[in-house]
């Protein structure tokens, strides 16, 4: 798959929709540089995400997300972002201005089983299905506004890979 550092492939979407798994798959198949933005933040800050939320709050975390998103766009070919990246206006506007942003989405029941009570995800930990559904609903229009396409991630990685390969290669 041909991407370049000026237009990395960027995955957005709610927690637990498979952004990291697919990003890693594509990058390893094609020998591309891959980064998970959450992992990048943790390694730069030398603190876990729950620690960052505790220390500087969600607003502080969103500022870091924007700061490090800018760095990652300059350095990597494939980037998976955190599900809440659309919450920060700066990151939202930056992503909106980019090409090759793909929204991964899938059935919320599947997502809930994956992320419920995940202590490493402050916005999912101790949340009911309905609380998560409400968070998801509040973000949908923003994912939609940013992405050039939406893909259902509840299908084999190979299928997703081929769909993306055709879209990106045919540009
Ligand atoms: C968040 C999603 C997480 C992470 C942080 C906040 C959110 O990323 O950035 O816990 O608010 O949706 P994943 O989508 O990779 O779980």
From TrEMBL:
Pfam families: SKI. It is an enzyme of class 2 (transferase). InterPro entries: P-loop_NTPase, Shikimate/glucono_kinase, Shikimate_kinase/TSH1, Shikimate_kinase_CS. ATP binds at residues 16-21, 121. Mg(2+) binds at residue 20. The keyword Amino-acid biosynthesis applies. It catalyses: shikimate + ATP = 3-phosphoshikimate + ADP + H(+). The keyword Glycoprotein does not apply. Its EC number is 2.7.1.71. Catalyzes the specific phosphorylation of the 3-hydroxyl group of shikimic acid using ATP as a cosubstrate. Monomer. This is Shikimate kinase. It comes from Staphylococcus gallinarum.
